[in-house]
């Protein structure tokens, strides 16, 4: 076994960030938030398209539907993860989790997917916000997921 | 951080890697808001490998889960096989949902940070500022290459005031005991109910 080595590294990022100037942190955050806000409507359209695609898979039920559904759900998590849409994010994440668990356990349940689709539509229509109503819906999804043992 | 603190990314080139075009654009918007000098977008880790052979960047933000070469494999390549100084570039991995199998693979890949979505610009900027300020050692061992993971347990250097008994040594040596098995490690990390 070769002996581990430890070295001090001063990165170019450290050198550059140590230079004077730049912008106020509050300003940098505000500009980033504004830039994201400008994409919000477009991203909401894409999220709705993904929900439609999953809905269509629930009807046609092809053999590779579990893989496709996981991919659509994962794409929604990726996009929603940059927006302030906590209820929608949790619903999309829950769909990823339950699809992953059901694939691994070879215990696919279409009703569980269909319930997720309905919750995704409702929370998206509500702007993705966390509300008492969305919390009740998410409680239902958590209970569904708890019934399937974790993968791995 | 105080309200009047500044962050200077005006000289920084950031490499963004994500196979989802919309997520890549959103990440690009955030980085642009931070005032980075330049951002380079790659739609695959393989494209990033080719790019890094030609030019240097200062920071890498990469999605963990991608087809073909994923974020974990990319970071392992970067830390072990990329030319110096590119192999030392700070990497923030961004995690959406990872299947259990991927989470296992992701351990110890050598990223500077793994941040889970939902991810706000504020949190991402905090991580970048930390990377710009920290002096973290770089470890090269047989089974791990990357920033020192013991950063929280290191404490002040030996021989100086303020070291705690539990602080770890900066010296790495050969293991003197058998490795713990995964069940033992899981038990150490698992929250347990106790009666008081």
TrEMBL record, chain A:
This is Chemotaxis protein CheE.
TrEMBL record, chain B:
It comes from the Bacteria. The keyword Lipid biosynthesis does not apply. Pfam families: Response_reg. The modification 4-aspartylphosphate is found at residue 63. Gene3D superfamilies: 3.40.50.2300. One of its GO terms (biological process) is phosphorelay signal transduction system. Residues 13-132 form the Response regulatory domain. Keywords: Phosphoprotein. This is Response regulator.
């Amino acid at each position: 076994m070769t002996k581990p080595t430890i070295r001090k590294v001063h990165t170019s990022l450290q050198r550059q960030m140590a230079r004077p100037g730049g912008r106020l942190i509050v300003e940098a955050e505000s500009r980033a938030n504004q830039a994201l806000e400008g994409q919000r409507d477009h991203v909401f359209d894409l999220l709705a398209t993904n929900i439609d695609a999953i809905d269509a898979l629930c009807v046609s039920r092809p053999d590779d539907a579990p893989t496709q559904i996981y991919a659509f759900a994962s794409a929604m998590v990726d996009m929603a993860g940059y927006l302030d849409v906590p209820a929608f994010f949790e619903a999309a994440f829950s769909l990823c989790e339950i699809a992953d668990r059901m694939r691994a356990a070879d215990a696919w349940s279409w009703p569980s997917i269909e319930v997720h689709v309905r919750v995704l539509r409702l929370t998206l229509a509500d702007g993705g916000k966390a509300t008492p109503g969305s919390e009740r819906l998410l409680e239902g999804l958590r209970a569904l997921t708890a019934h399937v043992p974790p993968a791995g | 951080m105080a309200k009047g603190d500044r962050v200077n990314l005006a000289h920084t080139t950031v490499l963004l890697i994500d196979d989802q075009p919309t997520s890549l654009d959103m990440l690009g918007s955030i980085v642009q808001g931070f005032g980075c000098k330049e951002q380079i977008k790659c739609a695959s880790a393989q494209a990033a490998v080719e790019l890094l052979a030609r030019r240097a960047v200062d920071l890498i933000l990469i999605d963990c889960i991608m087809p073909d070469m994923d974020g974990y494999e990319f970071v392992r390549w970067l830390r072990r096989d990329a030319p110096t100084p590119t192999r030392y570039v700070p990497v923030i991995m961004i995690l959406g949902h990872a299947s259990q199998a991927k989470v296992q693979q992701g351990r110890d890949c050598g990223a500077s940070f793994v941040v889970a979505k939902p991810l706000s610009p504020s949190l991402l900027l905090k991580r970048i500022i930390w990377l710009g300020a920290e002096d973290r050692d770089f470890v090269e061992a047989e089974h791990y290459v990357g920033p020192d993971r013991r950063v929280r347990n290191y404490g002040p250097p030996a021989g100086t005031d303020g070291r705690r008994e539990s602080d770890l040594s900066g010296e790495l040596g050969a293991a003197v005991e058998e490795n713990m098995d995964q069940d033992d490690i899981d038990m150490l990390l698992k929250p347990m109910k106790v009666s008081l």
